[in-house]
Amino acid sequence: MRLSSTLCLITFLQFFSSQLNAVTDQPTIPQFVSNPLSDSTTNLASRQLLVKFREGSTSNLWNQILQPYEFTSTQSVYSPVKYLQAFNQQLASWQLVTFGNATRAGASFEALRNNPDIEYVAPNAAFQLQSLPNDLSPALWGLHNTGQDDGTSGADIDAELGWSIRYSAEDIVVAVIDTGIDYTHPDLAANMWVNEGEIPNNGIDDDGNGFVDDVHGYDFANKDADPMDTDSHGTHVAGIIGAEGNNGLGISGVTWKTKLMAIKVFADNSKAAYTADIVSGILYAADMGARISNNSYGAVFTDAVAEEIFNRPIADAVHYAREADMLFVAAAGNNGFSADESLKVTSPATIDSPNVISVAATTRADLRADFSNFGETGADIAAPGKDILSTVPGSEYASYSGTSMAAPFVSGAAALVAAQYPELSVEELRAVLVESAEPVEALAGITLSGGRLNLHSALTHIPSGHCPSHTATPMNHHLAGRAVYCAGSYINFCAAGSNEYIGTNYALEPVLLFESDPDFFSTTNLCAPSNTPPLLAGESQQQIYLREGETAPEPNLVATDLQDGDISTGISDSGAPQTGLAGYYLRRFSVADSSNLTAVPWIQKINVLANDAPPRLALLGPVCDFWWCDVALHSVGEPWQDPGYVGWDLLDGDLTDSVTYTPVDTSTLGVRAIRYTVSDSAGNETESGAFRLVGIADPELPLIEFENRPNGKSLHNSTPAERSTVRTYRRDNWEFDPSAYALDMKDGFQYLSLEAFNHNVDASHDGQYRVTAIFTDSDGNTAVAEQQVEIVTDTQPPVLTLNGADTIEIEIGDDFIDPGYRVEDDLDSYPRVTPGPDPDTYTEGAYTKTYQATDGSDNLSQVVQRTIHVVRSHWDHPPKRAGFGWSRVAPDTAHINASFIDVDDDIQTLELHYSDGNHGGTGQLAPASGISFDAPAHTFSASFTLIGPPGDYTFFVLARDAKGNESQTRAFTATLLPVPEPPVIESIALTVQGYDIRVSGTVSDLDGDAEELRVSSELSFTCSGVAEFECTATAPAAGDYSILIQAVDTAGNASALETLQARVSTACETAANTTHISAGRAVECGTLFTSSACAVGSGDALGSSSLWFPATSTLLESGPGYWEKVSICP
């Protein structure tokens, strides 16, 4: 058996790359990230678009709309035949359109998007698979953790306890939407889903679902019926869900028996999956009866607006899957950031649909895995995801890590819960899994549930009215005693008890029977329904964006319960946050039914922006990386048609219709840059407008385009004429490297290597130089181009001018915002500017700030200066926040520090305002020890102590001056924990026998975490047990000994100190020497001819030990086992 190890997450990597910001403990302010998708690279099926026509439109109309754009084919994304058949008309209008080339696809994007008969158009984006190496751990700790390999005992899903209730979900179909499954693996083969309506390998679509020979699923990537895994990721995921249990092989899945449906969306030997294939896979799974789908892939979008625009096809598919009651289990992602403290969102884990459950990863120590995304808005529940052993192709096993591994634990548990409670809706199934999570202190605030998956808790979470059910053929029911021959027949079977006809003795179709009473079976479930948890649904967006000070709209929520009906009046609300300061705020809504079953909380994340940032642009096309595009070749003289773009804004939403761009002159050869801009409702324009490079080339002959890098002239910011001449300054230790590209309609756009150039440029000497470049295409056509390079001695300093006025007046206490400067140099495009210090805006006076520029030849510009007058025009300035921090100093206690600056020195009160999201309470606190004042810094500071019952507390500090002006810190959330109950020594007993001392007793602990017994004494005690303990020691001599005993729990809490006094007395015995020998106080020590006794330890001679000549001695035990002869006992 080969074992390997990998860190795994299939990640949607769309369009382009961006580094994630590091996650820190410092408060963060929302900042707009320029790229709509993070950690990504460009991959598009550039000849295809996903087009959703308006419902009710006909295929004839579709053809008329598409005809001008030279489309080559249209294909329904999915045509349902079973559980989604009710949506056949809606899904029929969803088409994957293929065009003759990428240009035609791009040209159609803009026009189709604006067509009133089209609901939306989306690119067929490619998503990619990522894997990183990790350490091997062969133990199945996620199922049963005894503390092996430095783990924490119990940090598992309680699989063994859960299996005592149910271990089989043999009738539940779980779709693995992934890289496929090795359906021949000996630990998976028996649990593979089999399409009963399909005859294998006959080349016929027997069940009429549109897919030929789809026996175990379908390969949507390669468009065939063989979903065999050639990667390993999907097989590993499948093994975690449902590797066959109790078969004596390899491992066991969470469920021992199930039906694994293989949905392959990643092509063989490819790390990319396209949107259309993923959408088709989701719809196929739902339509063919999958109750659960596992989705271990994801994309990090810069914000929820971008995610909604670009990921709409997959979101729509997820919504359709909900209609088929399919639970959509999604990995939270491996980027290690908090969704609660970032604008970024991970999709599909955060798709706003009540059938989606997102899963974070934990370690064997019950901690969040450092790679796992987290946050109440980023993960619903956690599950083991580090060093997980499972199946891989080739009958082998390997250990992988990732949220990809955590999600299938939840999928397997969901299958068992669905089998145990078949009447649950998909929303109720999600609620059971989330609300039954085992609370883990380290996961508070890390997931919505604050806990880790617990299979046993999930299977026992709701009071069951569930009848035991049995599926078998009529004959097998008869053999098991569940059916009898119907009256007067020896062919037909009837259910025992109800006498309902269920079939003949040769029928092979299985029949489901419910046992509502002992020996009473029926085809109808006559048991009362299970007491299901309530549902809390919102019609409002769960991610909203506001400016500072704006009021969030009240969300519209409805709470329903199968038993209690509408319970919306019982919804509790943590309260609308203060939005005066930029930050991320969570508003939590919850509800419980009359049986105290709770709904999954509904969380709204309110992103308050520090400023109205400019909108963003994304460009579509075959060589695009969202905000810029590499050179796309275009034939000279042919009219240009734009491949498409998307514009959006956090506050204004989709702005694509407002995007403008510069026209393209295709009449002359060369590279042109198209610039795109868009403005929001506040008039903000894109900061660094997106651009697309278009190479206008001859249909046959190649073309060379130079760059002019020493002068900062690149392809996107200059014309061909500007780039044909280089004029730069002389410098030593610098080597001139020419830069040019070749454009050829057949061979494409190529960067020329240094071997393609011939030049004699000497950058250390003034002079005129010529650079020649040569390129020959694959047809033998040669292009030659020249560039003039002039090297001159730079004696001219840069010219530095200030933006704005030379003299500025600002009010005391206001922030100084430097208007900036401009610097120009005819030879150096990037001179350095050294500015002086900013003014102290909290002290009146005139300040001078200086600026000086230096070019690459060390020429210094003139020093320019700006005068800033800090003045006071009034004494009514509001306080300004200066500092804020908090720490939890005890489980139920938070210590908060805050400081404010007030240039009027008249702050009168500092108050801590808080709300308890768990109990609905609000309040405010005064400083713990008054307000301190630093006069030179105009700073007022205070400390607060917040103590409360367990829960999530949101708090901020407010300052108020003598005139009523107020200012506040941003809001923070802290979780206060229960105060651990210390253990109690319930009973204790002391026994002294000679020099042997024994202390025994019992310990109780309401928290159940009593860990050790601590004994302090001059004696050396050995202890065993805690709840029932025993400690023993041997005294070295007679005397009084003190013994101090405490019981201590895992949190370090100690019981009351028990003090015992043990008195050890010396033993003294007077007896015949023969008796001393028998008692072990003496030994024989005579010769061959004499019988004598000696004391043990001291060796003192005692005289005769003969029975015939008896002698008596008095022995004193002066130490353990040390006896001395004395004349009389003391």
From TrEMBL:
Which residues does the Swiss-Prot or TrEMBL record annotate as the active site?
Answer: D178 (charge relay system), H233 (charge relay system), S404 (charge relay system)
InterPro entries, sorted? Cry22Aa_Ig-like, Ig-like_fold, Peptidase_S8/S53_dom, Peptidase_S8/S53_dom_sf, Peptidase_S8_Asp-AS, Peptidase_S8_His-AS, Peptidase_S8_Ser-AS, Peptidase_S8_subtilisin-like
Instruction: Please name the GO terms that the record assigns under molecular function.
Output: serine-type endopeptidase activity
Q: Name one Pfam family in it.
A: Bact_surface_Ig-like
Question: The Peptidase S8/S53 domain covers which part of the protein?
Answer: 171-438
Q: Which UniProt keywords apply?
A: Hydrolase, Protease, Serine protease, Signal
Q: Where is the Pesticidal crystal protein Cry22Aa Ig-like domain?
A: 635-687, 800-870
* Residues in the signal sequence: 1-22
Per the UniProt entry, what are the Gene Ontology biological process annotations, in alphabetical order? proteolysis
The family line of this record is: Belongs to the peptidase S8 family.
Please state what the protein is called: Peptidase S8/S53 domain-containing protein
Q: Which organism is it from?
A: Microbulbifer agarilyticus
Q: What is the lineage of its organism?
A: Bacteria, Pseudomonadati, Pseudomonadota, Gammaproteobacteria, Cellvibrionales
